[in-house]
Amino acid sequence: LSPDTVLDTVITSASAISEATAVAVYMSPTEAPSALALVRSAGLSEAFTGTPPVPMISAAASAEREAQPVVVADAQNDWLPPPLVAQLAREGKRALIELPLSIGGSGIGVLVLYFDEEQLFSDEDVEFYRIFANQVSQAIRNARRYAVTDKSLERRVGQLLALAAAGNDLKSTIDLPRIGDLLLHHARAATGAAAGAVIVQDSGKPQALAAYGYPRKVLAKLSLFARGLTGQALRDGQVILAGDVQAQPGYVPLITSTQSQLTVPIQRGEATLGVITLESERANAFSDEDQHFVSQLANQAAIALDNARLFQDIAQARDRLQVILDAMSEGIILIDASGRIVLANPRVNLIGLTPELLEGRDLQSLLANADLQLALRLGFQTEAEARQLVDAAQAGRPWSRDEPTSFTLAHDGGILYVRRQEIPVRDDQQRVMGVLLVFYDETEERLLAQARDDFTHMIVHDLRSPLTAVTTSLKLLLELTPETNEMRSMISTLTDASRRAIRKILVRVDSLLDIARLDSGNLLTEIEPGALAPLVETVFQELQPLATDLEVALTADLPARLAPLAIDADKIERVLLNLIDNALKFSPGNETVRVRVHPPGTQGAPPNFLRVDVTDRGPGVPDHYKSTLFDRFTQIKGRLGKRRGSGLGLTFCRLVIEAHGGRIWIEDNPDGGSIFAFTLPLYEGSEAHQRAMEQSVLE
User: Fold this and answer.
1) Strands 552-557 and 591-598: what pairing?
2) Half-sphere exposure for 115 (CA within 13 Å, toward CB)
3) Among 144, 223, 275, 369, which is most buried by a count of CB atoms within 10 Å?
4) Does residue 152 register a pLDDT over 70?
């Protein structure tokens, strides 16, 4: 579901399903959807990728529902723009096919496959590549959706917690008229003012939050405040203390009996939010102490006004977020550190719950309700395990629950597959103050995976019978040809080559089946005492014609007396065949592929295991591929051997060796190239096994 991983997989998969020697993926940037940019490639030079040619399928054309692939069977004879012909010639490419990538009728890019030789693209070939391009488009869409959902969810978690915290802090200060009444009451009570008002600016216009003692006509025309001393304080942000208002420049009488006035601005930084203005019928009625008190009150008023306005904004944002949460396809449950469920969206009906049942309730009390079966619905084995979730959410404790959990629920007579993700919610000090549970419906994904596996098994089984029949027919053909026939030698050579090719296909077919069985834990290896030397000799005989053609020598360094092993001989022979064939594929001419066996318990092998090395003098394996090259369909980007591989051979090797209790890894060859090393167990009844165990006890 990572966009980068999807693009990498597109490159390796394109090489696996075609004879293409280079692959390029062009995508449309979001800021310029009408343009195409090269985003990933393999098998092309830096000069090519530095100034890549513009695909013949434009971004606009790729968006059309009926957009067709562009097929160039022979770049030297088909009409192409001269610059493109020159670029292809420099790259040594003779043919190409451009495939539009689109999602829902919207073009997102172009996939280009390049070939070294002239190609005869049949209608079936083009349709096959087009189906592959559709799968690529679907994978890119899924990855994009996941990335958007993941980022959106992260943003929502932070906002949601901020909303909850702000709501608790502002419960008593969200009503602006109430804030005004409280301010004016305390100001008048402390100063003895006969009249007063709390005026705030709303979009540049004065608004009275509270007023006392003013005539109705003044309150009906608040612009009068803006023209007098109150308006001056609103504009300048300065305190006005007038002992005699008649002597004060700019004074506008609002009450005829007023003799003195105190107006204090309510400020946030340099911004003036409003003023508290007080009037008295007595001259010099307000002292410096009154000014100081009202100024402190104004400071509190600034906080209260900010909080009130912030709460209004938060409430609006929360409503918008609630709409988003309600529209999500994932179930969401937010639990605070005290164990109270503070939020649940309607999609929790996925696991048979409702927001009304959960919100505001304590998790512990809900777990105690046996009829609700909450622990089971949340995907926990026991109620105690579910209660540990609250312990893990306690503020200040380290978080160690990062791995998602998959579980099943009965649903409408069927099985519902659900994945639960636990996301810690942290404060600004990175302390855990809550946990977000996200529930994903994986049912369709599981069913699709099962259908894919069933389809693979069906194809594999359907391949074995005709291939076996062809092998038998070739053998019969050779037997029916008299040795005196002049065509006997040619037929023998052709049938041997054909049978080797068919056996290689059968090995790959068997590998597909065995990999599926090993993944599911259903492969029962036939473990028996076995010797390694005959297996190496058999593999050498099988691969010797190929090694001779490649001018590569095959050599074995085996001890004269090699202890028997506890192995499935057929599977280990295929492991050796895969590793030696892989070494031949990347070995230069006039070099040697060597099989070396080390004594038990040496060179990194456990005491009751021996180590086997397959050494080549090829280009070596980059460090960042050494841990992933045994994964299914993984191949080194940009590196093409003498023959194409399926990307399954090394996966088969890893699964077989691990099924024997050993391990397989890659090391650098000090003389250049790579060492593919693996360990195999000694047979328990052998003398070597007994000595190894005795040595282990002594150590």
Assistant:
1) parallel
2) 19
3) 275
4) no
Which has more confidence, 597 or 202? 597
DSSP state, 347?
A: G
190 dihedral zone (left: phi>0; alpha: psi -120 to 50; beta): alpha
Helices (H), 521-553: 533-550
d(CA 225, CA 232): 9
- State the pTM of this model: 0.37
3-state SS, 86-118, equals: HHHHHHCCCEEEEEEEEECCEEEEEEEEEECCC
User: Of 254, 331, 266, 358, which Cα lies nearest the Cα of 305?
Assistant: 266
The burial class, CB within 10 Å (0-12 / 13-18 / 19+), for 97 is buried
Tell me the per-residue pLDDT of 198-222, one tens digit each, with 9 for 90 and over.
Answer: 988 877 778 888 899 998 888 888 7
Cα gap 86→645, rounded to integer Å: 30
Tokens encoding 189? 């009570």
- How far lies 537's CA from each of 267, 542, 556, 592, in Å? 91, 9, 9, 16
Residue appearing with tokens 């949601």:
160
Name the nearest CA neighbour of 436 among 325, 315, 311.
Answer: 325
Residue 421 token pair: 């993700």
Report helix, strand or coil for 37: strand
Find the helix packing angle between 443-480 and 488-520, rounded to 10°: 160
Alpha helices in 261-415 (DSSP H): 288-327, 355-358, 363-367, 374-377, 383-392
